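Task: sequence design from structure.
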């Protein structure tokens, strides 16, 4: 990350944090935009490919990005569905870079060999790796493994940072060491996150065959592996939090007297430009159409839950709940 980008991102985060601490008007610094819900895979825990397949054309993408920039967003995650299904993804990333966003793209990378240019302007690529071929395809379906390691290798070779996300399910519980060995050999890093339940963008349930204590033990082991210096980008606070979670069949709760930073510090935008506090709240809250209204004044400032183990949301929330430790670690990880 260049110095100017670091300073802009740090300023946006600081402004957002101060507004949240003062309980002032929301001032999110980060947005995740689902470029499309369409996907060429059918992972067992994901409902995105079964949602509305429509999306914004390029002029409206440009307008959406202008709106996000005007509200103070500096970090933009392009997600899906599978963003690489859009032929104009390269132009979309270019529009985002023109507006000064730091841009990550989430992709399963199965289409990378055919269209490598679509990712070349991204600052960071997130992909998926749930273990070896059998574990990965067990969770994500036939054809989900082909070409992924080659694509990661090529991205690393051209200097693009890559973070593989492992969804922790019964398929991946015994796969962490193998994934980390691959990461150490190939030069990428890994984020682990629990499978989530009970919201529009996911499907499936937590396996009854795995006891909560087995999951807690997994997160404790991962915390110890991180302390040993293995390439785990999940923050220490995140791993500690998961090691203490009571029931992994419940991804989020409304805890009396607690606040959540979703909507204040970060938000989620669906493929048609409608914003929610976070992806988990899609279908649980009334969205704000960002092409017609300003999030800062139109959002009702309510979230259906205040405590969760939803992978990326928990990491963002910790930036606001435990700012000092989490922000320092985040700078070390991403800068
Ligand atoms: S998790 Fe990603 S790759 Fe899998 S179906 Fe959902 S959008 Fe597609
Ligand atoms: S607790 Fe907050 S970040 Fe987590 S799912 Fe609920 S609204 Fe989203």
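Answer:
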């Amino acid at each position: 990350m260049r110095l100017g980008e670091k300073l802009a991102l740090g300023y946006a985060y600081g402004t957002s944090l101060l507004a949240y601490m003062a309980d002032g008007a929301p001032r999110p610094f980060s947005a995740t935009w689902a470029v499309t819900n369409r996907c060429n895979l059918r992972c067992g825990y994901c409902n995105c490919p079964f949602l509305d397949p429509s999306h914004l054309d390029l002029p409206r993408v440009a307008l959406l990005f202008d709106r996000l920039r005007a509200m103070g967003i500096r970090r933009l995650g392009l997600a899906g569905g599978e963003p690489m299904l859009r032929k104009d993804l390269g132009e979309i990333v270019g529009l985002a870079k023109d507006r000064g966003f730091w841009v990550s793209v989430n992709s399963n990378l199965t289409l990378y060999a055919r269209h490598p240019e679509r990712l070349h302007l991204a600052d960071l690529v997130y992909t998926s790796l749930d273990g070896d071929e059998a574990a990965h395809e067990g969770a994500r379906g036939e054809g989900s493994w082909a070409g992924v390691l080659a694509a990661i290798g090529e991205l690393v070779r051209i200097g693009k940072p890559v973070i593989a996300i492992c969804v922790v399910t019964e398929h991946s519980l015994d796969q962490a060491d193998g994934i980390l060995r691959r990461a150490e050999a190939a030069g990428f890093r890994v984020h682990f996150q629990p499978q989530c339940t009970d919201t529009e963008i996911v499907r499936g349930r937590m396996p009854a065959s795995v006891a909560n204590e087995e999951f807690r033990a997994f997160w404790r082991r991962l915390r110890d592996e991180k302390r040993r210096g293995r390439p785990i980008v999940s923050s220490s606070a995140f791993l500690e939090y998961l090691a203490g979670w009571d029931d992994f069949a419940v991804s989020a709760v409304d805890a009396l007297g607690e606040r959540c930073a979703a909507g204040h510090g970060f938000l989620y935008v669906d493929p048609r430009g409608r914003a929610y506090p976070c992806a988990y709240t899609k279908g649980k809250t009334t969205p704000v159409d960002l092409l017609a209204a300003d999030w800062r004044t139109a959002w009702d400032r309510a979230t259906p839950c205040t405590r969760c183990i939803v992978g990326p949301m928990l990491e963002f929330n910790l930036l606001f709940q435990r700012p000092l430790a989490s922000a320092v670690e985040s700078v070390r990880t991403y800068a």
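The longest strand covers residues 162-168.
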